[in-house]
Write a structure and sequence with these properties.
Length: 125
């Protein structure tokens, strides 16, 4: 698994064109257990800060693309690191050819038809 350590490397990965859509995700323990297989499971709908049993069509993340500034990419990285009020040491760059918009600001759902997003790299800025 590749590790990205600079904003320049992160921007290069986003601008590579290998996928249509990219996102930054603060990794759950269950995400880390699945890194070797290269993709994540679908996320779940949350209500009142608690996950429900309702699966989404893909994996949630904070959307990033080549059109936003470096400052905004870094802000979304720090927001992903502090997801749902629990700081994580691991942020993942994930991607897919399909995207939907999520319910929260800058949230995207990457993947489709019950398949989660591919993991591109671990990001440690």
């Amino acid at each position: 698994m590749t590790t990205i350590t600079t904003l320049e490397e992160l921007r290069e990965a986003i601008e590579s064109g290998n996928y249509n859509y990219y996102g930054l995700r603060g990794a759950h323990e269950s995400d880390l257990e699945k890194l070797e297989r290269g993709y994540l499971d679908c996320s779940y709908w949350w209500e009142r800060d608690e996950p429900t049993d309702e699966s989404l069509s893909g994996t949630c993340a904070l959307g990033v693309n080549e059109y936003i500034s470096d400052e905004e990419i870094f802000r979304r990285y720090t927001d992903a690191r502090d997801f749902y009020g629990r700081e994580t040491q691991t942020v993942l760059l994930i991607a897919d050819k399909n995207q939907e918009y999520g319910a929260d600001e800058n949230e995207v759902i990457l993947g489709s038809n019950g398949y989660g997003a591919d993991v591109i790299a671990i990001v440690k800025l």
